[in-house]
Amino acid sequence: MESIDSKHEVRWVLDEMRLKNFGDEYLAEVFSRRKEGEPLAYIFGHWQFRDLELEVSPGVLIPRPETEELVDLVLDRVRARENTFRNWHIVDAGAGSGCLGISLHLEVQKKLRLRSELTSIEVSEDAAFVLSKNLSKFAPDAKLFRGSWMEWASSSKIQILVSNPPYISGIETDKADTGVEVWEPHLALYPNDLSKFPDASGPYRELIKLANHVVDVGGIAAFELGPAQAEWIDAYVKENYPLWSGELLKDMSAKWRFFIMQRLA
Q1: Among 5, 9, 39, 221, which is most buried by a count of CB atoms within 10 Å?
Q2: What residues are paired with 120 via a beta bridge?
Q3: Residues 21, 150: one domain?
Q4: Cβ distance 182 to 220 under 8 Å?
Q5: Is residue 85 one of the residues assigned to a domain?
Q6: What angle, 0 to 180 degrees and rounded to 10, lies between the N-to-C axes of helices 7-20 and 24-35?
Q7: What one-character-per-residue DSSP string does 72-139 give?
Q8: Are 33 and 43 contacting, i.e. CB atoms less than 8 angstroms apart?
Q9: pLDDT (tens digit, 9 = 90+) per residue, 201-256?
Q10: Which domain holds residue 18?
Q11: Taking all residues of the chain, what is their mean pLDDT, rounded to a whole number?
C-alpha cells in the first residue's frame, strides 16, 4: 500500500474498482502508476469537482478544492445582485477541464434560479479536446472558443468573467510541487510571458484589460491567483481601473487566493 499516498486514496481506488467492476489486475496497475507519481485523476481519467464528475487527462490541470471555493464566492455575489440582469453571460477564460465555468453556469440556474449562458475559452488543443467532452456532457448549450482570451470578442456585454490562469512565476519561493511539475501541463502552470513579467502578472494584466472591455456595469470578474499576484493586483486595479472595485480574499488555508472585481460604472 506504500504507493498510495493516503487512506483517502485507498478508498477512492476501491470505489473506482467497484464502480467499474475491475479486479486485482487493475489494483496492481494503479499501485504501479502511483508509485511513479502519476496523479490518481489521470489514472482514473475523471475527477470530482463540486457536483460534477469531469473528464480529465494530462492535457488539463486537475480541478482543485480552491477553485471550488471561487465558485461559491462568485455565487454569493450573483445572489446579492440577482435582479441586476435578466441573463448572466459567464465567460471562463482559459477553461481547461471546464470545471469553473460549467459549475457556475449550472449552479446559477439550479441554485439561484437565474438564466445564464456560458462561453468557454481555451487555447490548448489538448485541453480543448477534454473541455469539449465535458461541455457536451454537462453544458451542451455552451459555446467553445478555441484560441486565446485576447483573440475572443463579444458582440455584447457579459456579466461574469472568471479565470484560473497560469500564475506560477518559477522564482525560488514560487514553484510548483514536484509531482505537479512533472505531470500537469506547463501551459496551465506557467505564463508564456515570464520574460516580460517575471512575477507572472501577465495573464492578470490581460484579463483585467479584457474585463474592462466586455463586463457590463454591475458585472463581476473573478480570478484565482498565487502569492506573487496577491502582492500587487489590488493596488494595480485601484491605480489603473477606477471604475472597478476589487477585493483580495483568502482561501480556507488562509492563503491569498482570489481577486474579485465588481464594475461600478
Answers
A1: 221
A2: 92, 144
A3: no
A4: no
A5: yes
A6: 140
A7: HHHHHHHHHTTTS-SEEEEEEET-TTSHHHHHHHHHHHHTT--EEEEEEEE--HHHHHHHHHHHHHH-
A8: yes
A9: 999 999 999 999 999 999 999 999 998 899 899 999 999 999 999 999 999 999 99
A10: 7-55
A11: 92
